[in-house]
Design a protein that fits this description.
2 copies of one chain form a homodimer.
Chain A lengths: L2 H5 L9 H13 L5 H7 L4 H9 L4 E2 H8 L3 H13 L3 E5 L7 E5 L1 H15 L3 H4 L3 H13 L4
Helix pairs in contact in A: 2-9, 5-6
The structure holds a DNA duplex (23 and 23 nucleotides).
DNA sequence: TATTGTTATACTCTATAACTATA
DNA sequence: TATAGTTATAGAGTATAACAATA
């Protein structure tokens, strides 16, 4: 064990490591992490947050609707809002002139990076566990049959 | 180990037992169990479901609003709906004539019992774990610092 | 004809404010 | 004056249907 790892005792927060891994597994099994708090912190509606999240690359609006589990008609307004805030741009698709690709602006990339960091942060109760418990938790969750 | 317990292998569902215990702890830590699915199954709005849940005894409407984290003005409509379906009754409080106590009817008690059973049922992925893993999971979650 | 995105519209859920009847 | 519950109303969030442009 490295000295850096040894220094992290019970409850000392850390990026990466077993807590992150356990949290990732848990989030897949139970519910996504507390989006609402993050959304408020970044002054974004939950749906706008989900949209930024899926925009690792430019995507058509229909794809965004699918990811958000909502009707495409809603995506129009969501993208309108993000466009007004300068976080995304509507771009024409080179393949199909019906399609509009939603792409992040430079500012959008900055906000998305911050958001991804917040969302992936394990919650306090998980950080409060010993590293051994975090590791065991992650292993057990890894054995669960995800439907 | 009893023969009944021994017979439950990996993935055989069971009421009570370590899965229930782990699920109870997890639900406290992460998010309440998937209310929405249960609500649809019982043809009840999520708020009505939460109301039934808190009615282990007759309670004033303000108390219900507090439990639901919503304004009291909404409780009027929620209770209206439950009353129309014959699940609750508005009763006068013997102590304060401003207060109305919401009490379950006989039918309301039946629906609530079914609901509580559904909500407390551990999800499939948790039942899919070995009993040893379920137990360990519960123990680890029990060590977490709930804020 | 079918599909992408837009618009108009309606329904649910929740919040605020004014009101009533009690305290 | 303050409080419990009601009513009216407005704002989010999401769904359906009709439409324009394109396939």
């Amino acid at each position: 064990m490295s000295s850096a790892k040894a220094r992290r005792g019970r409850g000392t927060a850390t990026t990466g490591g077993p807590a992150r891994e356990a949290w990732g597994r848990l989030a897949q099994l139970v519910y996504p992490p507390p989006f609402l708090a993050v959304a408020r912190k970044l002054d974004l509606r939950p749906a706008s947050l989900g949209t930024l999240r899926v925009l690792d690359e430019p995507r058509p609006m229909g794809e965004i609707a699918h990811f958000l589990h909502c009707d495409s008609s809603n995506v129009t307004g969501i993208v309108d809002g993000l466009e007004e805030r300068g976080l995304v741009r509507r771009e024409p698709s080179p393949k199909d002139r019906r399609v509009k690709l939603i792409a992040l602006t430079a500012e959008g990339r900055r906000v998305r990076a911050r958001l991804m960091k917040e969302v992936e942060m394990p919650p306090a109760w998980l950080e409060s566990l010993s590293e051994a418990d975090q590791r065991t938790l992650g292993e057990i969750l890894g054995r669960a049959n995800v439907k």
